[in-house]
What does this fold into?
Amino acid sequence: MYLVIVLLLMLVLPVGSTVAEYFSGGSAPLMALVGKWFVFWGVGVRLLLAGIRQFVQPRFTAEQIFQTTSPDVLPLVRELGVANFAAGVVGVASLAAQSFVLPSAISAAIFYGVAGVRHIAEHDKSRNENIAMISDLFIFAVLSAFAAYALLA
It folds into this structure.
């Protein structure tokens, strides 16, 4: 189930939304649409949902992503959940406030890039940690490309 959700939020829905809007006759440049939809789905919806789950069910992240059963980490996972929820709210709000897209993309690229590199350093990764690593590095690359485009345009 985790893989399906990640694929939907990090690839299928943002690519589908980008393609649909691009071919609907709009005048926005393709990279602007990439930023808009990857921020909405990959940052907004994904982090919003992850934040809620980490706050309400911190044990899942602790065990499935960080591979620990220690209850000592649960307060930290809950705090991560609040931070993810906050970033997710801004990403979702970017549909209504276009000025949120670039700052959200930059902050999320940093977050996802660091998280992805941290996952690389882990030995004996679980399947879910590998999924998190690949999706984190993928969205880091997409958001970084969009941010570079937006800042240089």
User: Anything to note?
Assistant: Helices lie at 2-22, 30-56, 58-65, 74-93, 101-121, 127-152. Residues 2-152 form one domain.
